[in-house]
Design brief:
This protein starts with a helix and ends in a 26-residue tail after the last helix. 40% of the residues lie in helices and 4% in strands. It contains 19 helices and six strands. It binds heme C (3 copies). One heme C (HEC) binds next to β6, α15, α16 and α17. Its cofactor is heme c.
Length: 468
């Protein structure tokens, strides 16, 4: 809560600043148009727009749980209050049916609505500003051909003065850089495609970068240095990547496109819909993003590479259908000290699946391969242990039971300490008591994200980044 107050204090300064340039901050209205008939748009353009919308995760934020796609209403909690995603179906009254393409492109480029009001950066226009005119045209064609839904936008729950949109002009002046994407001529087309998608529509750093007190992403060396999203840690994707087995282009392509990777595990929480959406596109798009991200990670140090080689050599991955040894015959070290509750819980509850060598995605990862155990906070293993990993509806998929009922907070803390000590080369985590309590309070909600890699619209898209 301290953070919130500091943020508000600073924001007050911005408010006064904002008052000074009201004239500057004013944006004009773009005249309403008659809603364009669906037939006006070429099917090929609409399809291109569908693919781009998948990269941009538009449906994830703009759909309320159980609501119609793109009709808005999803609450986005921020440290400053709750902002509701709006209705972006072509309904003329409650959606964007009367927006011209120019109005739509302006909203993506500078975060201003058709009537000229500043939009909250919970809408990641600080990234979408990089989207080309041609791609905005395709996105517009896609949205204008969706089913119009009558759904009044919900009023945001923000304290004064944050509820005054003019304040956003101050925020933008400080933190927002309008810009089109500049390709790096020193890099090839695949790298540049990846940079365009990752930094623009894909807005990876909205979750994977740390933010300042005013909710703006930190830049420079902090770019993609790891962030937070809905109670999950979004690991560093730059040279600080904590992955025990360094990512390469092939493994990262597989992870982004399939939602899991043999030596890195499956994507959970707010990352799962990102991968589910990327999985609907040609694999080349995931490969482009992977090429760009791996270049930012750089060459792993010789020590890190050596450790990864040792880990890989130790791991036995059994081919599908092989007879898998039961727990107990494993080489993974398990402390037998009876005083060590964490080791005992692990041996009894976890080892059967995580040390059995069953191939992913159905088997559990060896935890010395897991970024979750080597990450900067225990937030992700806490979420996974409490809520488990539910199988996707109607499909075969990875299953891990949740232990919220079976383990109390102290037992989970012991288990975490044991896993960190045994399966990573990192120093112990800070006391996880608060994180465990918070994760319990969020309840099963966060863990219940389905691994729906087959559809562009996750059935219950309730996760999104806490932007702004
Ligand atoms: C991280 C969540 C998030 C994602 C992802 C997202 N939006 Fe939004 N969007 C919002 C929120 C929240 C608002 C409302 C902002 C406000 O009220 O100031 C918004 C507003 C908009 C608006 C302005 C609508 C209006 O009624 O004023 C448009 C247009 C829009 N989004 C289009 C898109 C498109 C296209 C995509 C995908 C390329 C997308 N959004 C992805 C959260 C998101
Ligand atoms: C809505 C927030 C969000 C967005 C947007 C997002 N991520 Fe993630 N990402 C996460 C979270 C949270 C995790 C941790 C998930 C887990 O533990 O399974 C994660 C995990 C990952 C991992 C696994 C890292 C590791 O070492 O195990 C990679 C790689 C990754 N994201 C890449 C990307 C890329 C590339 C993009 C943009 C195309 C992206 N992410 C966009 C939230 C996000
Ligand atoms: C019925 C089998 C099963 C049991 C029992 C089980 N898990 Fe899992 N676990 C899985 C599967 C499957 C996954 C998803 C694949 C993956 O990412 O490892 C998973 C994922 C995980 C992950 C994320 C690994 C990563 O980075 O991808 C952690 C951490 C984890 N489990 C910890 C535990 C702990 C701790 C216990 C015991 C309290 C436990 N598991 C019990 C099957 C199981």
């Amino acid at each position: 809560m301290k953070l919130r107050h500091a943020g508000l204090g600073l924001l007050a300064i911005v408010v006064f600043g904002a008052a000074g340039f009201t004239a500057y901050a004013w944006e004009s209205e773009i005249a309403p148009v008659e809603r364009a008939a669906s037939e006006r748009f070429e099917p090929a353009l609409v399809k291109q727009g569908a693919d781009l919308a998948a990269v941009g995760n538009c449906v994830v934020c703009h759909t309320a749980p159980g609501g119609k796609p793109f009709a808005g209403g999803l609450p986005l909690p921020t440290p400053f209050g709750t902002i509701y995603a709006t209705n972006i179906t072509p309904d003329p009254e409650t959606g964007i049916g009367r927006w011209s393409e120019a109005a739509f492109t302006r909203s993506m480029r500078v975060g201003v609505d058709r009537e000229g009001r500043h939009l909250y950066p919970a809408f990641p226009y600080d990234h979408f500003t990089l989207v080309s005119d041609a791609d905005n045209r395709a996105l517009y064609a896609y949205l204008m051909t969706r089913e119009p839904v009558v759904a009044e936008p919900l009023p945001n729950e923000l304290p004064f003065p944050l509820n005054v949109r003019l304040v956003l002009a101050g925020w933008k002046l400080l933190f927002f850089r309008e810009g089109t994407f500049e390709a790096d001529p020193a890099k090839d087309d695949v790298w540049n495609r990846g940079a365009y998608l990752a930094e623009g529509l894909g807005h990876c750093s909205a979750c994977h970068s740390p933010r300042n007190l005013l909710g703006a992403e930190k830049r420079g060396d902090d770019h993609l240095a790891g962030g937070e999203s809905e109670g999950w840690t979004a690991y560093a994707l730059n040279a600080a990547s904590p992955a025990p087995i360094p990512w390469d282009v092939d493994s990262l392509t597989h992870y982004l496109h399939q939602g899991w990777e043999a030596r890195h595990g499956i994507a959970r929480g707010p990352m799962a819909p990102v991968n589910a959406n990327l999985g609907t596109l040609p694999e080349a798009e995931s490969r482009a993003i992977a090429t760009y991200i791996v270049s930012l990670m750089g060459e792993p140090s010789p020590e890190r590479r050596q450790r990864a080689e040792t880990l890989t050599a130790e791991a036995t991955i059994h081919p599908p259908g092989a007879v898998v040894p039961s727990a107990g015959s494993q080489t993974v070290p398990v402390a037998h000290d009876s005083a060590d509750r964490g080791a005992a819980i692990y041996a009894a509850a976890c080892s059967t699946c995580h040390d059995a060598g069953r191939p992913l995605p159905y088997g559990g990862l060896r935890l010395d391969h897991s970024t979750a155990i080597s990450g900067p906070t225990p937030a992700n293993p806490i979420n996974v242990v409490l809520n488990g990993i539910p199988a996707p509806e109607g499909e075969r998929g990875p299953i891990m039971p949740g232990y919220a009922g079976a383990l109390d907070d102290g037992q989970i803390a012991d288990l975490l300490a044991y896993m960190r000590r045994t399966y990573s080369d990192k120093p112990p985590w800070d006391d996880p008591a608060d994180l465990i309590a918070e994760a319990r309070a969020r309840g099963a909600e966060n863990g219940q994200r389905s691994l729906d890699t087959g559809s562009a619209a996750p059935a219950n898209p309730s996760k999104r980044e806490p932007t702004w």
